[in-house]
Each structure stands twice: as structure tokens, then as C-alpha cells.
TrEMBL record:
Belongs to the glycosyl hydrolase 27 family. This is alpha-galactosidase. GO terms for biological process: carbohydrate metabolic process. The lineage of its organism: Eukaryota, Viridiplantae, Streptophyta, Embryophyta, Tracheophyta. Its EC number is 3.2.1.22. Residues 169-246 form the Alpha galactosidase C-terminal domain. One of its GO terms (molecular function) is alpha-galactosidase activity. It catalyses: Hydrolysis of terminal, non-reducing alpha-D-galactose residues in alpha-D-galactosides, including galactose oligosaccharides, galactomannans and galactolipids.
Length: 250
């Protein structure tokens, strides 16, 4: 199951909500975050006596004075909900604690980030794809996954609207998001330890009910021969997922 797991890790990364939208000109002082006064007090009492929201803008201003573009990746582990203000000071922001290389960790990060899919939708696009490893030591399998151009194309789509979970039935989840050209990205995620047949219904994923759809499996690099109307059903292995790009053809 190694490969499936890796595939899903990449999908998780695609769906994470640490998002990037910024240009230097739009950077400004963020508004105070009132939702967690106690944590704020603790942060102030520590170290430099700065909350992230006080400290980051100072760095932001310094970086914008540099004579070259610098990617500013905020990391306060999601404590003060940077999904709500990070776009004003940085290019990306961590929304959670560290992820580790296992199924449970990956799913817990997806779950934690789900809340931001709606909150952040109006202001931000898709999660930046950041790679944190020694690139000299990538296995061929991992390299194939992270360099999958079809998957990266979904992430970089010009519409810039994140996918979100549209349905959950037991251990089966259906995630979907609109793409440019009336296409739709669909992910069928099986959290169970046994194979499940999972159905994505047009109703749930924002496709008009009579649309005829051509489906591209972007992990397998295959366009399915079947044309789909109303829904798409696939068998998804244990702790695994399938990802399709759906294109209306009639
Ligand atoms: C990664 O590869 C480099 C170069 O071959 C090597 O020096 C290094 O020890 C490797 N790191 C790990 C964690 O295997
Ligand atoms: C999928 O749609 C077809 C055609 O509308 C319908 O006959 C079938 O029952 C649907 N399948 C599921 C699993 O919803």
C-alpha cells in the first residue's frame, strides 16, 4: 500500500489550506485576532514579547525592501488561525502542527484544515506545493508522485478555488472543486482498511445533472472509456484515493 499512501499524501498537500495569494503591495498590518486572548497573553509573555501578528509585519516590511522577490513562509503552527490573516503578511502559512509520514497523521491534518476551506475561500487560492526533504534522496516512486504534471496542473489551475469535502459516508469521502473550463476535480477518499466502492454525484460536485462527462484519472494518466452521466463510481482500495478531472463533453 506504500504507493497509495504516498499518492494520498500528495492529495493532502494539494488540499491543505496554507495558501498563497500575496504580492508585496498588498501586504499590510493584520487586524488583531481576538479569538484567543489567553494564548496571545502567553505569547507576549514569552521571548521577544511579540505575537506572530506583531512580529511578522516587521519582517514583511524588511523583505519587501530587498531588491529581489523573497517567498515568506509563515510558521506559527496554526495557533492563531493564520488562515484568516496570513495572506496580509506572508506568501504562505502553516495551519497545523507538523505532518509525519504516515496515514493517520496525514488524515488528521486534512481534517484540521477542512474548516478553512470555507473560511478562506473568498480571499485565497490553492495551497502552495512545498517540498520538505533532501531531494537527493527521493525514491523513484516518490519522485513520480511529486512530479505528476496532471496533478500539479490541478493545483495551479487559474480559477484558484480550493476543493472541499462535499460528502462523507462512513469512511468514504468525496472531495470536489471547480477548475477552469467548466472542469471539476474529484477525489474519492477511502479512510477504511477495506476496499470501498465510492460514488461522486453531480448534485454534490457542482455539475449540471444531465452533463455527459469524460473522466481523466490523473494518477493513472488514463482517460476512462466510459462516459458518465449523473455520477461516477470507482472502487477505491483501503487507505487510498482516486483523483479525477471531469470534463463536460455534452
Ligand atoms: C542523501 O544523499 C546524500 C548524497 O548522496 C547523502 O550524503 C546523504 O547522507 C543522504 N541522506 C540520507 C538521509 O540518506
Ligand atoms: C448513477 O446514475 C445513474 C444514472 O442516472 C443511476 O441509474 C444510478 O443509480 C446512479 N448510481 C448511484 C450509485 O447513485
Amino acid at each position: 500500500m506504500e504507493r497509495s499512501k504516498d499518492v494520498c499524501v500528495v492529495v493532502a498537500v494539494l488540499m491543505l489550506c496554507s495558501m498563497m495569494v500575496n504580492t508585496a503591495s498588498s501586504m499590510s498590518m493584520p487586524e488583531a485576532e481576538n479569538s484567543n486572548e489567553e494564548l496571545r497573553g502567553n505569547l507576549l509573555a514569552n521571548g521577544l514579547g511579540l505575537t506572530p501578528q506583531m512580529g511578522y509585519p516587521v519582517m514583511t516590511r524588511a523583505l519587501t525592501k530587498a531588491d529581489r522577490p523573497i517567498f515568506f513562509s509563515l510558521c506559527e503552527w496554526g495557533d492563531l488561525h493564520p488562515a484568516l490573516w496570513g495572506f496580509k503578511v506572508g506568501n504562505s502559512w502553516r495551519t497545523t502542527n507538523d505532518i509525519s509520514d504516515n496515514w493517520n497523521s496525514m488524515l488528521s491534518i486534512i481534517d484540521l484544515n477542512e474548516v478553512y476551506a470555507d473560511l478562506a475561500r473568498p480571499v485565497v487560492g490553492m495551497a502552495p506545493l512545498l517540498l520538505g526533504c533532501d531531494v537527493r534522496n527521493l525514491t523513484k516512486g516518490t519522485f513520480n508522485i511529486i512530479s505528476n504534471k496532471e496533478v500539479i496542473t490541478v493545483n495551479q489551475d487559474s480559477l484558484g478555488i480550493q476543493a472541499k469535502k462535499v460528502r462523507m459516508e462512513g469512511n468514504s469521502e468525496i472531495w470536489a472543486g471547480p477548475l477552469s473550463g467548466n472542469k471539476v476535480a474529484l477525489v474519492l477518499l477511502n479512510r477504511a482498511t477495506v476496499l470501498h466502492s465510492i460514488t461522486g454525484n453531480w448534485d454534490d460536485i457542482g455539475i449540471p445533472e444531465n452533463s455527459v462527462i469524460e473522466a481523466r484519472d490523473v494518477w493513472e494518466h488514463k482517460t476512462l472509456k466510459t462516459r458518465f452521466v449523473g455520477n461516477l463510481t470507482a472502487n477505491v482500495g483501503p487507505h487510498s484515493c482516486k483523483m479525477f478531472v471531469l470534463k463536460p463533453i455534452a
